[in-house]
Amino acid sequence: MLARDIAIAAVIEADAAQSLREAALLMYRYQVRCLVVTDGRGGRRVPVGMLTAGDLSVATGLRGCDADTTTIASAMSQPAVTCREDHTFAELIAIMRGSGRGRLPMTDADGALVGMVTADDVVSAMAESMEDLAHAGAFDPVPGDGDR
Q1: pLDDT (tens digit per residue) in 96-106
Q2: 117 CB neighbour count, 10 Å cutoff
Q3: Which of these, 139, 147, 124, 146, lies nearest to 8 by C-alpha position?
Q4: pTM of the model
Q5: pLDDT tens for residues 28-45?
Q6: Strand duo 113-118 + 34-39: pairing
Q7: What single DSSP character describes residue 111?
């Protein structure tokens, strides 16, 4: 199974020049905890960073930034840690472990945003694969083990 098989296609994104208030409104409107920050120049939506609810809280609460005048670019995590749509489970896990990120914007071969993969998506897909394997009889006891 590949990243494209488990990713969600609907990704809420924002431009780095938008204000933190606009970001907060997007998160509230779509009930999400992060936004993929993209650069839309050249007609392609290329991930350049991520803005999480935590980033927003730190910027406005701890650092005292003005939500109306501070841009997403000043508060986002960058660069964006991404995966490609042809990455395998093992590659997704390696990227997540190595980066400490549980959400990866998914890109096509040209680097354009096409979806999002989360750690929950990976775990759910792995659990389904294990269930399929169990139903296939792959865990039958070894002959003779049950005879004791």
Answers
A1: 999 999 999 99
A2: 27
A3: 124
A4: 0.82
A5: 999 999 999 998 766 778
A6: unpaired
A7: S
